[in-house]
Amino acid sequence: MTERLISGASIRISLFLFFAIAFSGGGLLQALAQDTPPPQATPVEQGQEAVALRRTSPGEVRENLQLKTGDIVSINIFGEASLTGAFPVGPGGDIVFPLLGSIPAAGITTIQLGEKIKGLLESDYIRSAQVAVAIAEEAKLAPNTITVIGQVMRPGQVAFEKDVPMDLFTAISTAGGITERGDRRRIELKRRENEDLRTQNLTLDGDRVVKLRDKDTIIVHALPEKIIAEKIIQTVTVIGEVRTPGQVSLKDDQPLDIITAIAMSGGFTDVARPSKVIVRRNTESGVQSIEVNVSKMQKDNSQPFLLQPNDTVTVPQSVF
Q: What percent of the chain has pLDDT above 90?
């Protein structure tokens, strides 16, 4: 008797569901499907999915590498072919980039370098710059070293690989070049051969290529003070949006301010941006970029920015 009641109840429930689905046009099935939770991935499946995502992320491994001295960095500025290329990270840890000059790169990632370049370009030159940075070639260990001291911009060691020849001119150039007080004709090469330390007098004048060896020491001596006073003419360079770009001489060690230097270069053009003038200055640690708001300086009649010998003043074009 009980089995008949259960069987009859089951038949009535089945008939009810049949007519409900028929009259609802399948809506009840959709509702039931929505209420049913999707199957959860097992921990193993979740791990496999995460690994797949990591493996297929384009450029992830290359973009997060930290830059170091000797790396070759590929920089692509979309739509600007003249700003796209490969740039080495120099001994001082900087790259030299068109328009922007020296930019610190060693110790940061390619993403951070790209963000830095993007910000510098957008502040003065390009709206909405699209920058892609990657390491084109990683630095190799450089077991050989040469010491360059005396009248050079960045005294210290110059590293080079065993299979790459090094000459006197390249070593001095890598050390930042000779200072304005340095004497191109009074250069010493000190080289240890067996137990003896030999000294050779050299010069950068002429076509002779002087090959260097591991552990050589180069000393660039200074010019005599009399020659420095008589022959060295100290200048600054003014370029960009001025009417007569070129060099401006510093006379009798008198200070030269940026407003006077721009005036001596014919003044600003009609499309100049005086609020974003850049002064690039050579220092022992590399090239320093200083932004000067000449517009505010003129308006406030404030103390003018003083220039130093060999400074380069760049007046950018207005973005409007």
A: 41
pLDDT tier, 152 (very low <50, low <70, confident <90, very high otherwise): very high
pTM: 0.34
Write down the pLDDT at residue 279.
95
CATH for 235-315 is: 3.10.560.10
Rounded distance between C-alpha atoms, residue 146 and residue 143, angstroms = 10
CB 315 within 8 A of CB 244: no
- CA 112 to chain CA centroid, Å, is 9
231 — alpha (psi -120 to 50), left (phi > 0) or beta?
alpha
- The domain covering 144-229 belongs, at the CATH homologous superfamily level, to Outer membrane lipoprotein wza domain like (3.10.560.10)
Higher-confidence residue of 6 and 250: namely 250
Mean pLDDT to the nearest integer, 24-36: 46
Q: Output the six-digit token pair for 2.
A: 């009980």
Write down how long the chain is. 320
Distance CA 298, CA 135 (A): 44
**61-137 homologous superfamily:** wza like domain (3.30.1950.10)
Distance between CA atoms of residues 84 and 23, nearest Å: 67
What are the C-alpha distances in Å from 92 to residues 42, 140, 152? 51, 16, 14
Distance between start and end Cα atoms, the chain: 94
25: Cβ–Cβ under 8 A, 6 or more apart, which residues? none
Phi then psi for residue 247, to 5 deg, are -95, 145
So what's the pLDDT on residue 281?
A: 93
pLDDT of residue 87: 93
